Amino acid sequence: MTDFLRQLPLRFFEVPYEGSQIPAGDYGLGRGANCQRYAYAVLAYFGVVLPPFRSSDLWSDRVHTKKVEGGFEPLDLMLFGPNDSAYGAHVGLWTGQDGVLHLAKSVGVPAIWSLEQFAERPEYRRLIGAKRVRSLPGK
């Protein structure tokens, strides 16, 4: 298991999926979260605060994040969808060891899936790409 997963309190693995809990400048998880809000709350736990980007805004952002072309690192933001469009894309966090921590409606609570598991599902079959936060603490 990747180091950052061991550091996350248990409450981060018990968050219920709630689609109406979108990023809105507050990354509290008390009422559940959608995928973006969950990913941003995990980042915030490690001292990284991003603007409340929706997935398409995250993908187009060049100020706070940069695109990653392979060589993923833990806490890179991964975007998945049925096609190449970032609009409405599903967002998770790379754990290392071919795993992505994410919160999906189909599971209901946080899960770690391999890239192959995403590819098996029509709504997530395309890895749109990855984004790395430009200034992670300790780097």
UniProtKB/TrEMBL annotation:
Cite the InterPro entries for this sequence.
Answer: NLP_P60_dom, Papain-like_cys_pep_sf
Keyword check for Hydrolase: yes
Keyword annotations from UniProtKB, A to Z: Hydrolase, Protease, Thiol protease
Which residues does the UniProt record annotate as the domain NlpC/P60? 1-134
User: Superkingdom, according to UniProt?
Assistant: Bacteria
Q: Which SUPFAM superfamilies match?
A: Cysteine proteinases
Q: Know the name of this protein? A: NlpC/P60 domain-containing protein
